């Protein structure tokens, strides 16, 4: 296993943006090809913070973040936009903002959100002097310049944090905000458009952000879920002590293989979603939720799922689709090159919906064969 980085600072070796290593969009015909590989070695990039991350309110149990190519790709898209910013004190344009969309359970909040916080914090302080992170109704404001340089202020509610950001904007201080959408906290109105750029982390339900999106210049970034090798790399990192101790041990290797096979079986049932695969309780709960969704789905719900799969319906706040369907950024034609920083035209990022797992795909196919779909 090649360890790309495991430190609080940016590693010297990372996937190359110029060579396209961190900007790969699968073709439509490769989606189910789980044997597709990128070489012999597994890759593992782990970002560690001794004080934790805002997503978990800086709990010490969550110091490490597993970062994938898709996460680095999202930052590369955003970084290209920030590179073109004019100084905040003379900025009159509406700054580019992004909606980062992905299936629930792939690590948008912990992995994507944490990395997209880390990178602006280490970016040029002249361009990004302040970074704000909204999560679960609270706001963390990280100051990089001025009298408060090197300090972070936590506001217990969104309105207080929003007021602080507006005060900075009135003082011609720009920055970047990250808003992690949760069930009870959708994007708030009133976030600045000039001098501040922003990222919204969300599931595909457009109602989480449509009001905010109408007020500004917004592009989509679709974050794909884990592929088979990334799941294996995640597993290897979690089991690194056993992996290290199993060198030369037939029993240790057999135990590792048995554990990995158990994880592979789970992936077939719930999909390549770390939240539900690597935690016993979450896995059991997800299995029950999928069984419920499959057995209690009415004709109307089946029709909605079918329309989603064929791109004829929008995601909504239902209790069925998010258990059975995943969203993926794909290229239908091998000759098409996706431009991550394109506008809302035909070259902009797009996505498609697919069954979340092998077992769910079989169940949906059976429902279609029986005339239920």
What can you see in these coordinates?
- The structure is a single chain.
- The chain is an alpha/beta fold.
- It is 35% helix and 18% strand.
- It has helices at 69-82, 108-121, 158-170, 210-214, 228-238, 240-245, 250-270, 274-277, 280-295, 299-309, 321-324, 358-369, and strands spanning 2-7, 43-48, 64-67, 97-101, 130-135, 138-143, 151-155, 175-180, 196-202, 218-222, 325-329, 351-355.
- It has a seven-stranded mixed sheet with strand order 7-6-5-8-9-4-10, sandwiched between helices. The chain has a three-stranded mixed sheet with strand order 1-2-3.
- A hairpin with a 2-residue loop joins strand 5 and strand 6 (138-143).
- Helix 1 (69-82) crosses helix 2.
- 35% of the residues are buried.
Order of the strands making up the biggest sheet: 7-6-5-8-9-4-10
Share of helix among residues? 25-40%
**Cα end-to-end separation:** 43 Å
CATH architecture of the domain at 2-222: 3-Layer(aba) Sandwich
Taking the sheet with the most strands, its summary is: 7 strands, mixed
The 3D shape can be described as globular
Total of helices: 12
Strand-helix topology:
Layout: E1 2-7, E2 43-48, E3 64-67, H1 69-82, E4 97-101, H2 108-121, E5 130-135, E6 138-143, E7 151-155, H3 158-170, E8 175-180, E9 196-202, H4 210-214, E10 218-222, H5 228-238, H6 240-245, H7 250-270, H8 274-277, H9 280-295, H10 299-309, H11 321-324, E11 325-329, E12 351-355, H12 358-369
Parallel strand pairs: 1-2, 4-9, 4-10, 5-8, 8-9
Antiparallel strand pairs: 2-3, 5-6, 6-7, 11-12
Helix pairs in contact: 1-2
């Amino acid at each position: 296993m090649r360890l790309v980085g495991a430190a609080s600072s940016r590693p010297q070796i990372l996937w190359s943006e110029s060579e396209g290593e961190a900007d790969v969009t699968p073709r439509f015909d490769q989606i189910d090809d789980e044997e597709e590989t990128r070489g012999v070695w597994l890759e593992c990039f782990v970002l560690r913070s001794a004080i934790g991350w805002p997503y978990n309110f800086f709990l010490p149990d969550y110091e490490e973040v597993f970062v994938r190519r898709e996460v680095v790709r999202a930052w590369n898209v955003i970084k290209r936009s920030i590179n073109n910013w004019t100084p905040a004190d003379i900025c009159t344009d509406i700054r580019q903002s992004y909606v980062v969309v992905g299936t629930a359970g792939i690590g948008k909040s912990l992995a994507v959100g944490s990395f997209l916080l880390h990178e602006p914090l280490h970016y040029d302080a002249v361009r990004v002097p302040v970074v704000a992170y909204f999560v679960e109704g609270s706001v963390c404001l990280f100051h990089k310049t001025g009298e408060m340089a090197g300090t972070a202020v936590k506001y217990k509610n969104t309105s207080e944090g929003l007021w602080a950001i507006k005060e900075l904007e009135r003082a011609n201080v720009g920055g970047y905000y990250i808003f992690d959408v949760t069930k009870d906290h959708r994007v708030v109105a009133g976030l600045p458009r000039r001098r501040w750029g922003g990222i919204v982390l969300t599931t595909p339900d457009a109602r989480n952000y449509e009001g905010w999106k109408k007020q500004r210049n917004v592009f989509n970034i679709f974050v794909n879920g884990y592929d088979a090798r990334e799941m294996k790399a995640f597993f290897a990192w979690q089991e690194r002590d056993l992996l290290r101790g199993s060198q030369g041990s037939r029993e240790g290797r057999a135990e590792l293989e048995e554990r990995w096979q158990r994880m592979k079986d789970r992936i077939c049932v719930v999909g390549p979603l770390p939240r539900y695969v690597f935690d016993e309780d979450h896995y059991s709960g997800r299995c029950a939720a999928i069984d419920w969704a499959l057995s209690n789905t009415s004709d109307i719900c089946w029709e909605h799922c079918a329309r989603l799969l064929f791109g004829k319906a929008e995601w909504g706040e239902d209790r069925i689709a998010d258990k059975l369907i995943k969203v993926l950024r794909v290229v239908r034609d091998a000759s098409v090159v996706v431009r991550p920083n394109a506008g809302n035209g035909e070259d902009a990022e797009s996505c498609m919906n697919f069954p979340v797992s092998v077992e769910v795909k079989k169940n949906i196919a059976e429902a279609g064969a029986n005339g239920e779909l």
